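Teaching soon. Invent one.


***
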Amino acid sequence: MSSSSEPLMHVVLYQPDIPQNTGNIGRTCVAVGAKLWLVRPLGFKLDAKHLRRAGMDYWQHLNWEAVDSLQEVQERLSDRTWWKLTKFATRLLWDAEFEPGHVFLFGSESNGLPPSVRDASPECNLKLPMYEEVRSLNLASTANTVMYEAVRQFGGLP
């Protein structure tokens, strides 16, 4: 995907902790033409050595940006529909209708999304179904599921 083309969707990781999860999510972003936004602070470094160690050898193909605050991304993508993924949602992923250009926000592996973010526009909160015995799902698995559900709803890749 060239950097000048419009991303199919936007994936925002709020303060991700684990580089391998970010790497897997980034790989899926490359596969589907999504832009990845990383909201600092990050739990890892973005230098070449650390990226290689996390298996991110395709990073040069990724449309991505690191920003200092969630507010910065919200301002830059204010004209978009935002979806927040949280285990505290009451609405299932399958009940939402996605369109190209939508934004998917995921919290950190250790803390999820802050309550202030989750509580703002709760109608935009989504979750994957799971039994109560499971505390949470892996961030990369969740993000990949969400992106491919969006692609499925779009009717495939352009």
In short: Helices lie at 19-32, 48-53, 70-76, 115-119, 139-154. The two ends are 11 Å apart (CA to CA). Residues 139-154 form the longest helix (16 residues). Residues 64 and 146 are 18 Å apart (CA to CA).
